[in-house]
């Protein structure tokens, strides 16, 4: 069994708790941590031609922004604790993409904070964590 | 060897056209005006003739926007442009009498092109159809490149530019004039059009230009210039590219813009029972303001809403059309039989079966824009390492536009006509389709008019982009230049509702079809490049070098 943890973050206070938890767990077992952030995106949306033309540029900007404002701080924080850290930013359906990443990266476990979105949106569509628990083929730890 | 073959065939095509042209010329002179096409009859406004054919709408009646302003500016513009427009129109839409039917040469040019590309690509549209669906479904999409424009998005954008009022009203015109048999040829032309689309969209991606800011520009003007340069004909390529750019720019202001806003106003006025008579300026300014908000104000949400509504509206249209067909179920066998027998007998059609064939082909070309090159501009925005994938995906456009939607409309009209031959009275174009729906679903004309508005709006947005690409090709990518273009575009939206700019629209229509000439000529020369790419791509699919990421 691999000793890789996949930590899904979204920049919310909820994922802060998950980061602390993973830092603790990984520290004990010497696990490698993959920090993942998913930019919500669907291949089946309808765009104007102008949006399509700008898409490549926007994508680069989105990746850049996600890396600098969300992923890098987490990566630094974990690295300071002496952990082996890798990071990934992907576009896609959040829960599905995290589940797929866990499989392709051969992660033993997924960690995610409980409260990503709140309010109406999570009532209507369910939270990413809940979706992940239902669909993932890899064990999921939801950090409250 | 293959090059030789292409050039040889090309030469042959040109010789045929020249010969037919000359013979036709002498015949035309001897028969003079008596050969006036039967199918033009019933169109009141002579200036609207071409537009009616392109978009398949009966031209506005006497009380409509087209006649809104017969004095002042309009009269002056008319005086200046009418003779010029008439001349250009005559040249571009030059018609050849053929066994009693009338064949516009530009349609012949498009048809010969699509037949050639179909054979040359060994029926790519049918061969790659399944693969096209796999691509759109995302089976071959690398998760690492998620976030780029997907095949589905590229297809949806291109389709919403082509699906329009023509799919609803144009088919009615075709059936009125060409009989039920025109539907059969319309479908055949849709199948052939797949190959033309494949070639032009593959080239569009292959020869697009990546701008310093990371955005991309492509389309026929780019592949004409770069492709011919590769073949050692740099000067000719530059000329053709520029010619295309001018054509698409002016065409965008006409058929993609003024005509759309004009028709949207006419329909709105019809539905409200003439309450908007004389208020064309107001409707025009409102529409221009909305377009302004979208293309200059950057209020993308409006465009996004339209882009989302249009596909659903097309879906609803098809759904209700199928319901109407189901309600007429007893008439379906006869309606289908009529389509097949009509295709080969051409009963009651001017020019017989050939007349039906011409009308069917013409309607299809005008509807799915295969050969005009506009879809190529939309598809080049996609960043992909395999140009062929965009070509493959684009074969679905004539399929959706012509083979599915147009056929469904034809069946609605066909079954209604079997049930009650007089169902539409004198109604033509979209009004005829509307009447066919109304016979079974009395409330349908209002959502249909709303759908027409949305279709017109999305066409305006799509063509604003095509025109912009022509503009930036000519004048560069500067922001100021682009803004100037967009302001001009908005002014023309408003103008479309206010004045009768018949001759100007004729020029723009003529130019749009004139650009088929350099475009398809270029496609002949560049076809060997496409074929090389195509063979290499499918060989790599077969060998497994290009991997599936899903559903393998």
Quickly describe the structure.
Chain A is of the alpha/beta class. Chain A is 52% helix and 22% strand.
Structural summary, described in words:
The complex is a heterodimer of chains A (144) and B (552). Chain A is an alpha/beta fold. Chain A has one domain (4-143): Rossmann fold, CATH 3.40.50. Chain A is 52% helix and 22% strand. Chain A has helices at residues 13-29, 49-80, 94-104, 119-125, 128-135, and strands spanning 4-8, 32-40, 85-92, 109-113, 140-143. Chain A has a 5-stranded parallel beta sheet, sandwiched between helices. In chain A, strand 2, helix 2 (49-80) and strand 3 form a beta-alpha-beta unit. With 552 residues, chain B is mainly α. Chain B has a single domain (54-80, 98-543), classed as Up-down Bundle (Amino acid/polyamine transporter I), CATH 1.20.1740.10. In chain B, a hairpin with a 2-residue loop joins strand 1 and strand 2. The longest helix of chain B is centred in the middle third of the chain and has 38 residues, at 234-271. The interface between A and B is medium-sized, with 27 and 39 residues.
* Tally of strands of chain B: 4
How can the largest sheet of chain A be summarized? 5 strands, parallel
Class derived from helix and strand content of chain A: alpha/beta
Task: State the share of residues found in helices of chain B, binned by percent.
Answer: over 70%
Number of domains of chain A: 1
CATH architecture of chain A: 3-Layer(aba) Sandwich
Largest interface: A-B, 27 and 39 residues
Helix content of chain A: 40-55%
What portion of residues of chain A belong to β-strands?
15-25%
